[in-house]
């Protein structure tokens, strides 16, 4: 079992990574002093339930004397919306959840963001525990960004609400489809690019083992990638400065994800396109050598992720969407640019013309 600590100053918690942990959730809750006298709520999605990951959690809670209700959301990004959150609030209230209740987010980033948002708002905030079941969720489960979407924009309605713990059962990843594995790999690649050239080199070598879902490679990948995320969040919980580097690839990535249309790109796929474009922009603006951008593109291709922007997405719509990004102010464009593998810089006021050039160059051929 591996433990990493997040310490933001006012919030401290552990990320526990191991095998078979979903069957031990009851004991973890006891260690966290979660009260058995209150009712608790598991939020999961239809695929995670069908893959068999809910049953061990329920059995473990029951064995430890906990009573939990289950709220199942449809799998997919479309579930990150306010109307569904309202249904979850009603469900929680009817089930009698109180301020000592805990929400258990069992699933990938969609469940984590949604359930965390429900926990952040219910009775002005109750505790929640992240039980990640995707590779991508090494990123989403750590750091307390919880949110739902507006129809045309990602994560606009949300909060910073740190979990009580992140309990990561590597065995749960065994049922993950390859496309989801690749998508999650994109965020790990991002962590290497922004802060850890050695991790990036290791991922380059280990790509086949990672894509074969080898538990040893996966354990190391999760531990190293979570350590990077935990370090950044501990230093700057509310994105006053440094934390924005975690958004590398997301300025264009979020715009592409939203404008491509529902279900077209997974989050990590859109981020992959965004990372390659941000690297090209960095070369054009003189921030890095062409070899560094070529390394980013080669890694993204090795992971089997997309690198190009589909023809049906309009350039001006992309620019408009990026001007309303959470990192932007006053309608200007902010990008996280590459200096070299392992080092990035947050750059404000990037001229839209230079971004249009890169969009044109990164179009699907
Ligand atoms: N809060 C953050 O800091 C943060 C960071 C990165 C991404 N995100 C968000 O995370 C979301 C993407 O997360 P994701 O890629 O995990 O998506 P997801 O939660 O939709 O999971 C991907 C798919 O895999 C299925 N699934 C999950 N676990 C499974 C398992 N073990 N076996 C089989 N199927 C399983 C899900 O039902 C879904 O169909 C996006 O909404 C993104 O914006 C948030
Ligand atoms: O934790 C962060 O900070 C991140 O930026 C991680 C991103 O991978 C993630 O997609 C996050 O949800 C994006 O945040 P947003 O504030 O741009 O919505
Ligand atoms: Zn992301």
From TrEMBL:
It is an enzyme of class 4 (lyase). Binds 1 divalent metal cation per subunit. Can use either Co(2+) or Zn(2+). One of its GO terms (cellular component) is cytoplasm. It comes from the Bacteria. InterPro entries: Dehydroquinate_synthase, DHQ_synth_AroB, DHQ_synth_fam, DHQS/DOIS_N, DHQS_C. It is found in: Cytoplasm. Coiled coil: none annotated. Its EC number is 4.2.3.4. It catalyses: 7-phospho-2-dehydro-3-deoxy-D-arabino-heptonate = 3-dehydroquinate + phosphate. GO terms for molecular function: 3-dehydroquinate synthase activity; metal ion binding; nucleotide binding. NAD(+) binds at residues 109-113, 133-134, 145, 154. Its cofactor is NAD(+); Zn(2+); Co(2+). Residues 71-182 form the 3-dehydroquinate synthase N-terminal domain. Catalyzes the conversion of 3-deoxy-D-arabino-heptulosonate 7-phosphate (DAHP) to dehydroquinate (DHQ). This is 3-dehydroquinate synthase.
């Amino acid at each position: 079992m591996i433990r990493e600590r997040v310490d933001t100053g006012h919030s401290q918690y552990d990320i526990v990574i191991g095998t078979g942990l979903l069957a031990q959730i009851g004991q973890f809750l006891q260690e966290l002093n979660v009260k058995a006298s209150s009712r608790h709520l598991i939020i999961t999605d239809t695929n995670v339930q069908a893959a068999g990951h809910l049953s061990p959690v329920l059995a473990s809670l029951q064995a430890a004397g906990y009573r939990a209700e289950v709220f199942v959301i449809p799998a997919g990004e479309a579930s990150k919306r306010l109307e569904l959150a309202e249904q979850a609030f009603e469900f929680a209230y009817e089930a009698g959840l109180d301020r000592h209740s805990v929400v258990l987010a069992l699933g990938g980033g969609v469940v984590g963001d949604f359930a965390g948002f429900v926990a952040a708002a219910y009775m002005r905030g109750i505790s929640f525990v992240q039980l990640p079941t995707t590779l991508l969720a090494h990123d989403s489960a750590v750091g307390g960004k919880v949110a739902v979407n507006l129809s045309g924009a990602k994560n606009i309605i949300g909060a910073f609400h740190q979990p009580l713990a992140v309990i990561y059962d590597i065995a749960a990843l065994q049922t993950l489809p390859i496309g989801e594995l690749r998508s999650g790999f994109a965020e790990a690649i991002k962590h290497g690019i922004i802060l850890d050239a050695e991790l990036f080199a290791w991922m380059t070598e280990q790509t086949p083992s990672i894509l074969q879902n080898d538990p040893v490679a996966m354990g190391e990948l999760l531990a190293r990638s979570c350590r990077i995320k935990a370090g950044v969040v501990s230093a700057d919980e509310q994105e006053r400065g440094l934390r924005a580097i975690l958004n590398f690839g997301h300025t264009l990535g979020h715009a592409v994800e939203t404008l491509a249309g529902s279900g077209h790109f997974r989050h990590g796929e859109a981020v992959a396109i965004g990372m390659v474009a941000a690297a090209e922009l960095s070369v054009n603006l003189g921030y890095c050598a062409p070899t560094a951008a070529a390394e980013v593109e080669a890694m993204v291709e090795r992971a089997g992720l997309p690198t190009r922007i589909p023809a049906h997405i309009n350039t001006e719509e992309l620019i408009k969407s990026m001007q309303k990004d959470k990192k932007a102010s006053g309608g200007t464009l902010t990008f996280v640019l590459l200096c070299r593998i392992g080092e990035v810089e947050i750059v404000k006021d990037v001229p839209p013309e230079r971004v249009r050039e890169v969009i044109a160059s990164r179009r699907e051929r």
